[in-house]
């Protein structure tokens, strides 16, 4: 079974607070999981600060290299929210208030008895031709330009926006994975696992060490879009572990 | 008070498991915090998979752009641990067993009654001329080549190695920061904060929205290497918040 090559993606997380350590990113892992389920290969993530030229340059590199780019952060109402302008600059597009966004937010703030301040109006600005991404949490929308999806950094809002986005993307053939717990450390399995990996070229075989402070174990993870190749490799790993158990019941790193 | 420009740094986190979502990175935030304390500016983070050419190319970009590069992941004993080879390729250096690393690991495994397998010997391989980074947790060392620090991905080991590395770096003048809790949402403070930011050019002013599921608040964070400018900006923010409290005691996004 030969699949189409999977679509590729990158993520660009934007915010000085991520680079200072003040905020710990929670969006990268969430996006990674959803893309994996959708059969889209996340190839690269970058985290950069609130610097408009650097955002635009980085975005141009990523959007030309991958099928999709997902951004988080920098679309709020304050002066350090520079992502929308940077996206417009990257595409060479003018930026202005999106009429649908103005309607959504003016209704929202009127309903809450709040002033629709200039700061709040900033959240309606998108590059010309952008398609809005609905924000069910706090209404101020994200937006899509070409293959770039611009979303908020607050995790609840990022996740809500991403849910709307994922529903619009064609699902690829998801990679199936099999995780095999292994009581031996990587030092014990490294040599047999290397030859096993070479004899199963259609399957990606990773080993992830776990250290509980005293002894090691490993999770061996096999991934493939080819079910038959995956099953065959998984059987070979299990046989390898049986051999090791007979040879040395003890374990260490 | 004029400081020397701060040293700059990038991080390169390596591992397919980070991009699939199977493993959530815990090292980026830790490095970010330590660099901030040390007065070193973390400018960029990238996460990429276990692809040797891509690792080497990315590393070459980063090491030429920043004063320091910190890597995590891919230095274990298995076939998917490709970082040491990629670092050697990036620098155009031959790779071989580091004699001190061989001594450390042969003693360690002998002491635990374990075979020093070919897989375990892989962990002694470094680019020629590399300086070892001690690993107090599981002994297999990291290493430094020029301005690149190559460390393990397992968080306990990354943190232990990084502790050793940080002690060797000249500390810059740390950025001082002041965090001011603000009961108003960003939409309320965005306009006055923008003009305040423009009138205090030596101070970086960020605002970080918090959403508890119902209402918004904000943390306003001021950063500067200039103590006097920082105190002046902080006083201006406090005065701004007093004005807002008198104008409207309520709060929302």
CATH class of the largest domain in chain A: Alpha Beta
Overall mean pLDDT score of chain A? 91
Q: Rg of chain A, please?
A: 23 Å
CATH fold assignment of the largest domain in chain A = Molybdenum Cofactor Biosythetic Enzyme, Chain A
In percent, how much strand structure appears in the residues of chain A?
A: 15-25%
CATH evolutionary superfamily of the largest domain in chain A: MoaB/Mog-like domain
First and last CA, distance of chain A: 38 Å
Number of DSSP E strands of chain A: 11
Secondary-structure element string of chain A: EHHEHEHEHHEEEEHEHEEH
Q: How would you sum up the major sheet of chain A?
A: 6 strands, mixed
User: Can you tell me the residue ranges of chain A where pLDDT is under 50 for at least 5 consecutive residues?
Assistant: none
Please list the strands of the largest sheet of chain A in the order they lie side by side: 2-1-3-8-7-6
Largest interface: A-B, 73 and 73 residues
Using the alpha-carbon principal axes, give the shape of chain A.
elongated
Question: Architecture of the largest domain in chain A in CATH?
Answer: 3-Layer(aba) Sandwich
**Assembly state (oligomeric):** homodimer
């Amino acid at each position: 079974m030969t699949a189409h090559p999977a679509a590729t993606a990158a993520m660009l997380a934007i915010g000085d607070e991520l680079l200072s350590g003040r905020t710990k990113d929670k969006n990268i892992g969430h996006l990674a999981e959803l893309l994996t389920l959708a059969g889209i290969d996340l190839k690269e993530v970058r985290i950069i600060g609130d610097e408009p030229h650097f955002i635009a340059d980085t975005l141009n590199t990523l959007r030309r290299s991958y099928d999709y780019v997902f951004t988080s952060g920098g679309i709020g109402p304050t002066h350090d929210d520079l992502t929308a302008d940077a996206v417009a600059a990257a595409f060479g597009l003018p930026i202005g208030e999106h009429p649908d966004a103005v309607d959504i937010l003016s209704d929202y703030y009127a309903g809450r008895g709040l002033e629709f301040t200039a700061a709040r109006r900033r959240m309606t600005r998108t590059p010309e031709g952008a398609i809005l991404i609905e924000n069910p949490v706090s209404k101020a929308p994200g937006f899509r330009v070409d293959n770039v999806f611009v979303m908020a950094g607050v995790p609840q809002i990022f996740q809500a926006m991403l849910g709307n986005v994922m529903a619009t993307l064609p699902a690829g053939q998801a990679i199936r994975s099999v995780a095999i717990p292994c009581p031996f450390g990587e030092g014990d399995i490294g040599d047999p696992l290397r030859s096993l990996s070479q004899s199963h070229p259609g399957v990606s075989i990773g080993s992830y060490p776990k250290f509980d402070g005293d002894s090691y174990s490993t999770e061996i993870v096999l991934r493939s879009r080819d079910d038959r190749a995956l099953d065959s490799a998984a059987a070979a790993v299990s046989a390898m572990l049986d051999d090791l158990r007979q040879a040395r019941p003890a374990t260490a790193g």
